[in-house]
Structures are given as C-alpha cells and as structure tokens.
Design goal:
alpha+beta, BirA Bifunctional Protein, domain 2, Rossmann fold, 8-stranded mixed sheet
Amino acid sequence: MPVKPQTYRGMRDHLPRAMILRQFIIDTLTRVFELHGFEPLSTPIIEYAETLEGKIGDEEKLLFRFQDHGGREVALRYDQTVPLARVVAQYPNEIVLPFKRYAIGPSYRGERPQRGRYREFWQADIDIVGSASPLADAEIIAVISEALTALGFKGFRTLINHRDLLSGLARVAGVDEEQAAGIYRAIDKLDKIGPEGVREELLKYGLAADSVERILEFVQIEGAPDEVLAELAPIFAGDTRAAAALENLRAITSTLEEMGVDPATYVLAPRLARGLSYYTGAVFETVVDEPPMGSLLGGGRYDELIGLFSNRPLPTVGLAFGIERLHDVMEELGMGPGRSTVADAYVTLFSPELIGESLKLAAELRAAGVRTLTALEPGGLGKQFKEADRKGVPFALVLGPDELARGEIQLKNLRTGEQRSLPRSEAIAELAGQQA
C-alpha cells in the first residue's frame, strides 16, 4: 500500500508560485539590509540544548528537543538571536565590533498551528552588536520602514516602547516585583482581548482597582513621539530609571527624524511589552491594520544575552522579520510579483529539423538576461502554446523555416493573444528590455 502523502502539521510545502513571492521578499530584504552594511551570517539548525535553554523565558516549552545518535541533548533552532550570541562569544577574534549582521533561514517551535503561526517558519534577522548608541536602535527601526516600503506595504506602523517604562509603570501603580510579570503578560494581550479583558486579568492578579485604572489609562496612550513623551514625563517624575528610558526614546525618535524616516510609520506605544525575557531597553513591533494578522515583525535591545556566553556584556539591538507572515499578508493583499513561473519566454520547437536553431535562439535569449523555457518535443504549436500559458509564461516564440530564412521571430503574447513577426535581434531586445 502506498504511503499517504501528507505534510507534518504546522509545516508547509511552498509550491513555485509561493516560492516566487517568498524569494521576492527575501531578495528585497537582503538588498535593504546590505544597503545599510549588514553582513550575512548563517548558523546550524541544530544547537546543543544547553545553548538555548534558559535564554527565552516562558517560551522554552516550545523548543523541539531530542537526543542525537550519540545521546547528546540537542534542540532545533528556536530563533536566530541566541545562535548569534553564541557566535559572537565563540569567535571573538574574527568579529569586528560593532558587528552588523543579517541572517535568513528557518527556525522551529512547538506552536499550536494557526494562521500566521507555524512550527517551521523563516525569519530574516538583523542585529547590531557592540553599540549602546540610540543611533543603533534608530537604524534598526529605519530598516523596518525602508524594507516594508520596498516590499510595497502601506499603512504599517512600528510601535516603540522601552522595557524600563513598563517596570516604572509597576512602581508608579504601587505593584510589587512579584506581580509585575503578570502585569506585563496582561498588557501584552491588549490588542487581542481589549481594555476590559486586560482589566479582568489585572484584577485576577489581586491588584487594587485604582492601580488597575492607572495601568489601563497608561497603556492606551499612543501617538506621535513628542506628544507621548510630554504626556508620560509627569507620570514618571522622580523615577530615575523611567526618566532615563524617556530620554532614550527621545534620542531614538529624534534620530529617526534626522534620518528622514516617514513619521507616519512609527508611534510610541507604552502598551508594547514583547514576550521574550531577554529585552533590556527599547522594544518595537510592526503591525498592519488590514488584514488582521498581529505583528509582522518585532525586536528590541538586549544588552545581557551575549554576556551569558562570553562573561562580558555586549550591548545589542535587533529585530526579526517573519517571512511567513509577510508572505501571507502580501498574498492576501495581492502584493509582490504576482507570477506563477520564473520564465519570461517559451521557445517552441517547430519541427525535428529546427530543434538546433530553436536551442540557439533560447541560448541567445538567456545571454540577454531573458529567463527562457524550451519545449522538449517538437510539433503541435497549439499544444506548446497551451503548455506555456498554463505555466504562466507571458511570451512564446516560434522559429519556423520561413522565419529562419527572413531572420525573423514570431512573438506571441499569451496574455492578449497578439502575435507579431519581428527581426530576431529586435524580438530579443524587446524581451530583454522588459527585464531591465
């Protein structure tokens, strides 16, 4: 009995049309990353379990752990961040600080599969290691704006906050340290369960009603940096750490303005908590209003994680683009190349005697940068046109004995049905020009 063909739950096959969009996303992100001088880095999919354990907080339960053939405890890569910390600590003499790196590849989590969340997913990460400057934070956020604009997104917003504002909120609300973690978890659900849901969660933690109201009022503040900073300043008067966080956010947003980043693409949002425990400073997350998908990407400053491997603190800031989420949103909105094949042209085979001439034509097209398919069997032009059309190739070329004698090509637009005779060089130049 044949094995039933099926995909492991929470993982996906990506057929050509999906892969063309994914490659467009990856190529676009790579180009923007490299324009900012980020360098490529790749790490293994498998790490020793102890490398990942104790680094990702409550999410550690999602690790895919197993024993290798030697009985060693290993785990699949959870994200690109912890491996980066290991690499920086492992190769201190080969990495020049500040180190700007990007990494694109799959990670694995034992998620409950749902729209936008998968057990195998691709991320595109960028990080700046070895700089505590707010300019580093601002450049990461600027890359978000540039990359999403290059992909064709409109109406996105990057929410920016600082971890010390959240801890300051707990102090201002009169909440002890043990209750603070519950506050952060509740606040992080605001977009999903709304203010009433957050109120119920906070009351469950035993907070006084007046403290709950102060927290709710605080987390619903959002807007332009100058306005939000002015509103938050009196709330944290006398709290040194929170005041320093406000100044840090002021420096970051001022730098964004100096970099020419569109102010409509980012806001300060004190509700933003971010789930991972290793963030120590500014945090950010980018959302789109339609379709509802949650965050497209997120990140922040984590100045202590690398020190867990190297015994020295190394300030670091970074973010991760979720390729799966970008793909799903772009597919739903009809963004990207909108192609089902990579080929631009399909060279038909008129007859067995002209196969060689048709292959020469295909070679000339490829040399001119035109991605070209050729038929594999001669005869039956109608059948060949149908094959090319089903594959989504926009143009078919016919080279028969009459065209060969005249130095011409029959160029058929498979989308409109228009067919023209053109000089061979002109036909090649026209197709090549469409790729420029």
